[in-house]
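Continuing the series of single-chain predictions for the mutant panel. This is the parent chain; the variants come on the following pages.
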Amino acid sequence: MASPFPEKTDPQATVAETAEGIRRLPSRPNSFSPSYRLPPEVLVRIFIDLGPCPLATSTHVCKYWREVSLEFPCLWSIITIESHERSTGRLRLFLQRSKGTPLTITIHGIQDRKLYRELIKELSSHRCRMQKLLLSFNSNELQTTINFFASDFPVLSEVSLEPSQTSNPGARFALPKDLMGNAPELYSLRLCACVIPWHSSTFKGLTRLQLEAMWPLEPSPEELWLVLKSATALEDVRLQDVLSRLEPAPTSWPLDADVDLPHIHHIDLTETRFMEYAHFFSRVRIPANAHVTLDVITTYRGQGSIAERLTWLPPSLFSAVRSESTPSLALDMTLGPLFSFIITQTSTQHPSRGCERTSDLDCGGRINATFHHHFKYACDAVRATFNSLWFDAPLVSIRDLRITTYRDRGEWYLEGIPWSDILSALPNLRLLHAQIGPLSTAQLIDALEPQYHGVPVAELRELRFPPLAVWSKRPKLEGVAHVFEERARAGSCLDKLAVSKRLLTESECARLRRIFGSIELTY
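Parent structure:
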């Protein structure tokens, strides 16, 4: 039988329990907050998106957030040290909380030599778990940097090195041959304004190589071929302003090249003169489905065209575009002070110049090229580059063509486009979007008329002429309806036509409405 009298309690225990309840009162409202009830994995994803800088602050939001952030060491393994850093405190905090996880380290713009040495010293004891290092080193502490790389880096896979331009702007640095000889897992290397000897074994295991701003330490042709031949596994090569010793331009595009890069996914030549670009592609062979990015200076002050002996584009770049087995591609062209074109899969609506999907051959990009012409030679140079596209066999994989021309001092670039050559080179074209001058528009309409040998681009289903303000002072086009009536009789009728009313007379508009199931008349 239970006692009718309550058990005696320890007064001190009661006081302690009450005090603990009072202490927890401020945090109780957090338990009703949606952010407090987020699953840990969702909260970790949020912390990752915040980046390393706000991470330490987020641990003070509430007890739950702090517990979650400290429970996942990987959150603290991405460490960025910027120029505003004044001590090693934050670095030590992140290194401690990251525990044994692999590290991604970024150090940028540290001008204080003492602080730079302290940061490097702090990192030295964690070399064994350093996986990715982006180091903008203090050029006044070059020896400190070299000594740092003297020990083993067993898991280091990606390295980016460049001098901090704030400490010694414009300087270039030659680094020791064995600088990264103790990093057996290294596959990605970026060097900017600093070089290691070109015969270094460091290049052999790379799959990604990026070289920038090497002058006057850029490689000779023999040294560059040596690097590329030794790195047989290369998948991504990016060269920016490092080919100035590649000259002269070759006399022809050879069928066979000396350097074979069979695994290349992406290759990028930026800030390159024509002779350097031509010399490079006359010696290097890459897969037909590689993504090629070009930024080429074709002519410059005091010199005319230096590509008179060559087509401007090596035929090897278009081998995939000429293949029936290649997925449908789109060609987007711009004609103005510079000539540029982009070839992508038709499903890629907005092709990206900086595609980073180096592990995927099917990134959607094929060729992204820009050719800069000096104003004195621009018209002839643009025409020569443009005509190189249609050289050799048809581009059977191109299904969409978008072409835009610009005016200079009232004159259209490349007025009088050779549409017969273009339409012959694009036999499977289905969409044509032409923002061009009046003469080129009239010539395009004429080129679409059926001939005795057949219908040009018989598969064409959509034609678009975006409106241009300058057309208000131009004469109307004649014979447009006649051309499309003839195409319809030949069994090649467009599904859609988009054209400005300013181009057509009222009678032409009425006839076109009878021909097309879908016509879009704009102003």
